[in-house]
Structures are given as C-alpha cells and as structure tokens.
Amino acid sequence: xxxxxxxxxxxxxxxxxxxxxxxxxxxxxxxxxxxxxxxxxxxxxxxxxxxxxxxxxxxxxxxxxxxxxxxxxxxxxxxxxxxxxxxxxxxxxxxxxxxxxxxxxxxxxxxxxxxxxxxxxxxxxxxxxxxxxxxxxxxxxxxxxxxxxxxxxxxxxxxxxxxxxxxxxxxxxx
Length: 174
Known about the structure:
Elements: H1 4-26, H2 30-54, H3 66-95, H4 100-116, H5 120-142, H6 146-173
Helix pairs in contact: 2-5, 2-6, 3-4, 3-5, 3-6, 4-5, 5-6
C-alpha cells in the first residue's frame, strides 16, 4: 500500500493539470469542441514529430498509394478506431465505475500499442499523444451521449488525419 502513494500523487497532479488545461473545452458545443481539440492535438503531435526527427528516431515507410492511404486514414480509421480503441475500452471502464482518468488510460494503452509497432514517431505522436486527445474527447462526451461521443471523436480523428496525411506525403517527397 505504501508504494502506491507516489502513483496516487502523480495521478492527482496529472488530473489537476488536465482538468485545468482542458476546462475551456468542456464548455464548448460538440462541433466547436471537435475541431478545436483536433487542431490542438495535431499541433502537439506535430511538435513531437519534429522533436523525434531531430533526435534521429523518426521515419516510417508507407507502402500504399497516397489516395488509398488517405481514404483509409481519413474515413475508415477514424470510424473503426473510435469503436475499437475509444468506445469499447471506455465502455468497459465505465461499467467498472472507473474514474475519468482511468477511462482515458484504458483507451490510450491499446491505441498506443496498435500504433507503436509502426515506429517511434507513430507510436508517440499518433499512439500516445493523439490517442490521449481522442480518449479525452470520447470520455468527455460519453458523459452526454454515446452518439455525441462517437461522432466528435471520429470527427476529430478525421480532421487530425486530414491535416497530417498530406504533410506526411509532402515531406516524403523532400
């Protein structure tokens, strides 16, 4: 029991920061929340990509045509991944009466694992950071309705991928 105290303090400090930082989002309408959280999450992920690139850890080879990859990333992945990595884990966590922070962790962990095998950049930027923003979106709006949670999360994911995918292919050509 004694060993858990630092973890509990860290959890409490982290949740205090998250609540403070994201409080402004909680007052927005679903659509305003959706696009604003997508833009912020994309900027945070892009900053992480730049840092990882400077460290020489980045790089990912995409073996698909740009149009096919874009369709999968902007249409298919947001719908499928919202069901598998946000709706399902958060549903399980909510059924277990888990706190908001645990709901987010329950979503981020499998999202990170699914993206981590694609490289450090994808694992950190897409899996961990974007996964956090998507989990936060779903968990927040799930307090209202499943449908609002689903479409705001899938929409935010589609906006994020719609910005990132053209950048990935543009940088590939450089």
